[in-house]
Amino acid sequence: MQITNGMAAIVTGGASGLGKASARALADAGMKVAIFDLNEEAGEAVASDIGGLFCKVNILDEDSVLAGFEKARAAHGQERALIHCAQVSKGGKTVSRDRETGGFKRFSTEDYAFSAMGILVASYRMASISAMGMAAVEPLNDDGERGSIVLTSSAAAQDGQVGQIAYGSLKAGVNGLVLPMARDLMDLGIRVNSVMPGIFATPPMLGVKDSAPQIFENLEKSVPFPKRLGKPEEFGSLIVELVRNSYFNGQNLRIDGAIRMPPR
After folding, report:
1. How far apart are CA 154 and CA 165, in angstroms?
2. Can the keyword Oxidoreductase be found in this entry's annotation (predicted)?
3. Most CB atoms closer than 10 Å: which of 65, 188, 197, 243?
4. For strand 8-12 and strand 32-37, is the pairing parallel, antiparallel, or unpaired?
């Protein structure tokens, strides 16, 4: 899909981290980017910096998401790219020792369900609403292509660690959405892919560098090559390629420096 100046894109979680890097990369490629996020101050700052639009959106709330799409489309027209980076989840082991009682405690069904809403259900919500809009507009090229959807999974989808029962399994679920959705949408010319980032130098990880430099150094050494954390702009570069390369479809792509996460 050739990216033309003024073509519209939506990036969830675009106020920081990998979402911010994706929004900037797409804007640099010529797209008009709408940022969906709850952090109004940071989101407005990023939108202003890249010449885009901020929409305050809660991915857990269908009405909030629909209002965000309406605002973005009114300003920029129908998005031809959706990049979904936002997520909400809780962490914990399936069963672990309870230090207070001396017995055991379980990662609750309620916490798992909350995480499912914030990772898997939200991914379906964003992708399906975007696809509805894409389906209604004219194709962009002779292939009949109408748009590109990119979901954010994680290396944890394949290498889930201790305490990542919800995160790992639900990110695997995000990968599981991709092929059937790509097949559902193939006659409409809408492509669907996911990206599985490894360890990236996002604000939370840079916080580890400041608070626990030895742990941060060990994380860098654990990456086969290059021996460092991923740069957000490297993630953004892949996002742009997935939008413009029409032969990427139905794929779950790792970007991780060849790391494979240990149990802990």
Report:
1. 13
2. yes
3. 243
4. parallel
Burial (CB count <10 Å: 0-12, 13-18, 19+), residue 178:
buried
Alpha-carbon Rg for the chain in angstroms: 19
pTM: 0.95
Q: How many other CB atoms sit within 10 Å of the CB of residue 182?
A: 17
Residues in CB range of 34: below 8 A, 6 or more apart: 8, 9, 10, 11, 47, 52, 53, 54, 55, 68, 71, 72, 75, 76, 79
Q: Pick from 147, 254, 156, 136: which is nearest to 192 by CA? A: 147
pLDDT digits over 166-197, tens only? 999 999 999 999 999 999 999 999 999 999 99
Active centre residues (catalytic): 167
Check residue 7 and give its pLDDT.
Answer: 97
Low-confidence ranges of the chain (pLDDT < 70): none
**What's the token pair of residue 202?**
């996002």
**Class of residue 154 by CB neighbours under 10 A (exposed 0-12, middle 13-18, buried 19+):** buried
Q: What is the CATH number of domain 8-255?
A: 3.40.50.720
Name the nearest CA neighbour of 157 among 82, 237, 256, 12. Answer: 256
What span, in angstroms and rounded, lies between the C-alpha atoms of 171 and 237?
A: 21
Buried (b) or exposed (e) across 39-69, using 16+ Cβ within 10 A? beebbbebbeebebbbbbbbbbeeeebeebb
Element (H, E) at 83: strand 79-84
